[in-house]
Structures are given as structure tokens and as C-alpha cells.
Amino acid sequence: MSTAIELYAEFDHPGMVAVCIEVIGWCQAQSAPERAATLLGAARTVWQRHSQLKLAQSALATVTRRVETTLRQKLGNETFDVAFDTGQALTLDDALRLAGATGEPRPEALAPRTTLTRRENQVAALVAEGLTNKEIATKLTISPRTVDAHVDHILTKLGFRSRTQIARWVSAGDDG
To answer: Domain of life of the organism in this record (predicted)?
Structure first.
């Protein structure tokens, strides 16, 4: 999918770029709900900037509404809205990075806009040490479900897809 986005962007096909970003958001709904909401917001911005694409957007609307409903149930309205609004504020380049369309996601473009909370930084450091969510929960005396939520938030805020990327990010911060 990321190669498709790169090609559509290179040949100036914003409708197909929006479709790809939106579909990636759908696919992330279960595994990374905040990231999914952010991607849906980014796709919405692409749609709005290119009014000639209304017909294409309406073809996806039914599935997108179902995914948004699922994400709101999973995240709660407030968290969904924050993630969605973050996505809407992204530039196209940042949206492409978040969608993974430019090779390895480069979250440094998002870094000035997002910062991790104190607890998210603690969780990220423990992820970098190789601890499981259950081990992190025990160490911080919080529930494993809360750790899951923190890890999801970290992944979303930094535009990552894996714990390995979190570990690399933490290690890079220690070096510089």
C-alpha cells in the first residue's frame, strides 16, 4: 500500500492518496486505534482540499462511518476527537509518513507537535528495556490494560508501528 501512495502522490492523484490513507486507517482500527483515527483525520483533510473528489469520498463513507463508530467505542469520543484532529492538522507529507508511505515512518516531523507524557516516557523506556506489558504494569504498579493504552498512545504520537521502533527512538534519545 505504501508504494501505491508514493506513486499516487508523485503523479498528483490526491483522491487515490486519500483512499490509501483512509484504507490504512481502517486496517489499523483494531491494532492501533488512535493511529487509525489520526489517519482518518488526515484523509479527511486531503478530501476537503480537493473538492472535486466528493464522489470518490462518498463511495468510502459507509465503511469509514463504521470504522469511526468502532474507534469511538474503543477509544472514547474525546480520545478519538484528539487523534482525528491531530490527523486533520497534518501536512500531506506528515500524513504520508504516518501511513508509512515514505519507507520507514519518520516521526521526527511529528515530534515538534507531540510530546509524550511523563508516564508515556516511563513506559517507552521500559519497552526499550525489553519488558512485556505485564512486566511494565508490575514495575509501575498499574494495570496491564493501562500499559496497553500507553503503548498505543506512544505508537500513535510517534507514528510508529512496533515496539522495536519505540526502543530505537528511546536509544537515539539517549545518544544525543
So the answer is: Bacteria
